[in-house]
Amino acid sequence: MKIIVIHLFSFIFILNGCANNQRQNDVNHSPIMEEFEFEQSVPFTIAENYFSNEDLNSFITIVSQSEFDQYIGMATTMGKHGQPTPIDFKKQWVIAVALPSTDINTQLIPISLKKDGKGKIIFTFKAVEGNKLSYKIKPFLAIIVDRKYLGEIQVIKI
């Protein structure tokens, strides 16, 4: 009798394992999973020591030096890290974000740059507001991206 019970439990255990494996395969090959789009992180560098002119009040993608010079200026300062970050437009492009002038101390912080399953680049940044100032500033952020990621872009402010 013990042998029959042991064989019965073994048979149930094996049957259950096969059923779970089949259910797992069904989930992995379902039409829902095939339509799901995976995101890929895209590397970037923050462009330091630049500012935007008054014409830029949203975001722009820049692919040439002449276009860059039209919207962005260099803010060179003295010291070890005073030079603007070099940009090679033959190999790179720029995503620049500027908000309207404000008297609230505002810093723009990059959160992520991703490429979705359809090839769209999604740039997410955060605007951190501080204290009231006695003068106006123009919050600005620019990132440098490798040209191999050039494409349609969506910018999200959180």
Beta fraction:
35-45%
Q: How far is it from the N-terminal to the C-terminal residue, by CA?
A: 67 Å
- How many strands, which pairing sense, and closed or not: the largest β-sheet? 4 strands, mixed
Q: SSE string, helix = H, strand = E?
A: HHEEEEHEEEEEE
Average pLDDT number: 83
Report the uncertain regions. 1-15, 18-35
Q: Which shape, going by the Cα principal axes?
A: globular
Spatial strand order of the main sheet: 1-7-8-10
In helices, the fraction of residues equals 10-25%
Number of strands: 10
Tally of helical runs: 3
Computed CA radius of gyration, to the nearest angstrom = 26 Å
Structural class: alpha+beta
Which tags fit this structure?
158 residues; globular; 3 helices; 41% strand; alpha+beta; four-stranded antiparallel β-sheet; single chain; four-stranded mixed β-sheet
How would you portray this structure in words?
This protein has 158 residues and is an alpha+beta fold. Helices cover 25% and strands 41% of the residues. It has a four-stranded mixed β-sheet with strand order 1-7-8-10, with no helix packed on it. The longest helix is centred in the N-terminal third of the chain and has 27 residues, at 2-28. The protein is globular. Mean pLDDT is 83; it is low at 1-15 and 18-35.
SSE blueprint and pairings:
Elements: H1 2-28, H2 31-35, E1 40-41, E2 44-46, E3 50-52, E4 59-62, H3 65-71, E5 72-74, E6 92-98, E7 102-115, E8 121-137, E9 140-146, E10 153-157
Parallel strand pairs: 8-10
Antiparallel strand pairs: 1-7, 2-9, 3-5, 4-6, 6-9, 7-8
